[in-house]
Amino acid sequence: VNTCMDDIVFWQLIDQTLNKNYSELSERVKAVEVALSHYSIIEIKEFNRLSEQLIENAKSTELLDWATRYFKGQIKLSGGISWNAYEFFTGWLIMQGSDVFTRALVEPEILEVLIAPSSSQLLSDFSCEEAIFIASSAYELKTGKNYFEDFSSI
Fold this sequence. Notes:
Blueprint: H1 7-15, H2 25-36, H3 41-59, H4 62-70, H5 84-94, H6 98-106, H7 111-115, H8 129-132, H9 134-143, H10 147-151
Helix pairs in contact: 2-9, 3-5, 3-9
């Protein structure tokens, strides 16, 4: 089955929200969900796969080391705390757009420019759990069904 969902379309959906006047990151996430809900179910699934791939790629880069140092122990990869905190940080990073995300994978220090104006070093200030679930929310908008229930048996 041919699909038009690829890296380029994925990032266009994210990047198109960057220059809009959204006051909250959650509003940008919602805009991506609504836009994605107009795509086919196959394309929504592919968006999810691409998102998961980006999160995995972010685990195997200098970004993980940088984030662990910058957030001073708030990301614990053992001892009972899962990857969730880092994944939510990666969700925030995806929502910063393709240029920032791609550059941060190889040069994570650039994030200090984005983060410094807030002067926060709390990981929760740079987390976006909703970004991890854009595809499932778009699927539910499109079909009225639960993404995870529909695809758990596939």
